[in-house]
Amino acid sequence: MLEREHLVVVGNGMAGINTVENILKLAPNKYKITIFGAEPYPNYNRIQLSYVLEKSKAIEDIILNDWQWYKDNGIALHTGATVMRIDLAHKQVVTDSGVQTGFDKLILATGSRPFRLNVPGSDKQGIVGFRDIDDCERMVRAADVYRKAAVIGGGLLGLEAAKGLLKLGMDVTVVHLFEELMERQLDRTASLMLQAELEGQGLKFAMGKKTTAFLGDERVSGLQFNDGTTLEAEFVVMAAGIVPNAELAKASGLEVNRGIVVDDFMRTSVSDIYAVGECNEHRGVSYGLVAPLFEQGGVLAKHLCSVETKPYEGTVVSTQLKISGIDVFSAGEFMDAPDLAIVRMHDEWRRIYKKILLRGGRIVGGVLIGDGKESTRLQQWIRTGTVMTDAIHGALMGAVEAASGNTVADIADEEIVCGCNGVTKKRIVDVIQEQGFTTVEEIKMSTGASRSCGGCRPVVEQILKHVLGDKYDSAAAKKEGICACTTLSKDEVVRNIKEKGLITSKEVRYALGWENEEGCSKCRPALNYYLGMIWPSEHVDERDARFVNERMHANIQKDGTFGVIPRMYGGVTTPEDLRLIADVAVKYKVKLVKVTGGQRLDLLGIKREDVPKVWEELGMPSGYAYAKALRTVKTCVGSQFCRFGTKDSIDMGVRLEKKFERLDMPAKFKMAVNGCPRNCAESATKDLGIVGNEGAWEIYVGGNGGIKARLADLLCKVKTDDEVMGIVGAFIQYYRETAKYLERTSDWLERTGLENVIATVVDNAEKREELNARIDLALEQVKEPWRDILDNRKLKEQLFEEIKVPAHHE
Amino acid sequence: MRYYHVGSVELFPMRLGRVVRLNDQQIAVFRTTEGKLYALENRSPGPKGGTIVEGIVAGEVLYDPICDWKIGLPDGCVLPPDEGKVRSFLVDIRDGEVYVGMEE
């Protein structure tokens, strides 16, 4: 057997281990791995040290890889071992105890340390950094004995340390060299708000103070500042930035500036030696945050495993303060500059500050104080340089009408507007002018812009507005048809279907003057849905109008195999069912068994012709994981077993799933039931989520955890289980009747308005009953689809079996 | 050119594709509402790859199930605004039996 190459990692922290984990995933047998770590712990989550300090977590809670992990992966781990020297000539590392270890490849992941002020008295007792578990423990011990603490550094780390000490009961003053806190992430307004907020929580500040000496005898007793003033302090934490640990590299002859200099693949100046994480310096930047470290580790792992990878080109860093009670977010650029346009909102009453920075119409930075709801999306917009639109502006700033179209004028002609289909702004402007287009739909059909993910549609619309100017007719633009075959809107189509009594989609297309006799991939599934919703007992489902997964009742995968998910009501199963699922999975050589996000089991990699056999042998109903219908009802353990459970969430979840499964809806529909407000089954991101309280059920609607995250709104509170069923039935039916095809409840709710839904579903008992009567009628028509196909031999063959032709046949 | 007997027309459902495996080739055969049969190589012309047999058939157009491109059933040509071509095969129907032509 070939000798495996020896990979030595110096540094047992997040950067090094993340890289190793990636390597193990890509090529588990490529390297023999040895890791040296100076701390006597396995890899832990350094970011969460402040929780250990606050005592909200124990050290064991923040361990990322326990000892067993190293053992399981055959990694030789030496903790408490500091590497002193790299012997380049013999390709080996030498530890403080004299152990020599040879390497083929070497990764330096030595991290960083707190910057220590080099002033008189800095070696006194009672002065620590805030970097590792040791520091944390020292801080906790100090809090027991001492009262007055000073934290040097008003950046992210300093504020977290200060807040931690405050919580431990100390009297804490933050000493900062500058006049503003977090001056590298926040502008003056934001800094002052943050300071006021923290002062409200009990922190004290000494701003614009340079520490020139530490006072005291053996132990520190205070700080001397350059302006002649002093501050009493029995305990000092230095958190004024970090210094890359690059001494080892420097002493060994590697190129080092501030950190160990690396290229876009984390290669140092010496071949076969790499540096990753806070110890390195990439394009002049040493990062002190976790996101870049993961990106670097990903690139390095691929490089080391000879997997093709894009070079690492730097990271747009974002900062989120992990202090309870304050939302502070900052990413990208944050200071005003002549070439930037600023969108700013400052609400001193609600104590909210939002600032978005645009260059050439694109979002290049942002600061959020007091309201960080949009921080995740904002970060994404910054990373991708998204163009500001009315929709984004509305999401960030509240629905304030934006001045029309100025931002699109700033987009350069050759800039790509639609990233999916590579359509430039010029192309869009050209077709509008040359072809006389007046709607986005026409532009889409001609150029492909906004056809795939739809994300650029608002920009396309703005360009259209901008080019047409006064000729832009917003009514006409809004009155776009449900697809290119018609100019009728969804509401008009539905009204016509009802009024004219149209039962089949062919009749609809004929009666309503469709452009294409047989429709298109947009209207075919939509019409089939509307017809089924309006005429539950008369309309015959049109299988050829269904998208593939709904047509075959399985999830097609990228290699042409299928995923099968059986129904598992409320996420509850039995040993017998599990055994059966396991047996079937083995028999049909399932490639992967995956527990889904909705608490079900997915059998992946089943051959097309085996799908019906798998159904037959499972003998379970379809889990509908492919459908625009109720997917799953996720439940927590609830009062049957959980000590905190106040309600029987499983029972309620099973009841809901059994009642509403299989019914077609405009889009997929996810539910959850929780037995108490701890909300373990995560109701806030479900189309309909239920939370049990002592004596009541709360019903939340319109949540979404997907592409466009949205927290659910409270629809109502009810007392009994039957009331829950009544409200849920009415809500689902109201959604079915009024939403556009493919419109999730989150978008629908914003369009129709929560008040309107409450007025119809909750406050109006008569309407609620009518809605329930209609949904009950629809529910009577549903059939179990797997059984249905198995019982129809011809259909089963047509859908799942290939026709094999012998080659010699004439 | 050689024609291979595939089976009866009844094997092919209206507006639903079906795979025919012939000389290690996967061919997607579609039957239109008008009763015509078309045979295309079962491979998406789009950038993401995949198969086309699962697409939606409308008239003489197939909507690619992955990239939603429009593919002309008679010749396999992708319709504007996209470009590309899927290999197409000749189909002959005699006495309700289907034959697919392939170069030898």
What this model shows, in words?
The complex is a heterodimer of chains A (810) and B (104). With 810 residues, chain A is α/β, with parallel strands linked by helices. Chain A folds into 6 domains: 5-111 and 245-305, FAD/NAD(P)-binding domain (3-Layer(bba) Sandwich); 114-243, FAD/NAD(P)-binding domain, CATH 3.50.50.60; 327-398, Enolase-like, domain 1, CATH 3.30.390; 413-471, Orthogonal Bundle (Arc Repressor Mutant, subunit A), CATH 1.10.10; 490-546, no CATH class; 629-792, Sulfite Reductase Hemoprotein, domain 1 (2-Layer Sandwich). Chain A has a 5-stranded parallel beta sheet with strand order 3-2-1-7-19, with no helix packed on it. In chain A, a hairpin with a 5-residue loop joins strand 30 (592-595) and strand 31. The longest helix of chain A has 18 residues, at 721-738. The radius of gyration of chain A is 31 Å and the shape is globular. Chain A starts with a strand and ends in a 5-residue tail after the last strand. In chain A, 43% of the residues are buried. In chain B, the strands form 3 sheets. In chain B, strands 2-3-4-8 form a 4-stranded antiparallel beta sheet, with no helix packed on it. Chain B has a 3-stranded antiparallel beta sheet with strand order 1-10-9, with no helix packed on it. The mean pLDDT of chain B is 91. Classes of the chains: A alpha/beta (810), B mainly beta (104). The A-B interface holds A 445-448, 451-452, 516-521, 524-525, 543-545, 547-548, 551-552, 556, 558, 560, 795, 797-799, 802-805, 807, 809-810 and B 2-7, 11-16, 18-23, 26, 29, 33, 49-51, 54-59, 61, 63, 65, 67-68, 80-82, 100. Strand 37 (803-805) of chain A pairs parallel with strand 2 (18-22) of chain B.
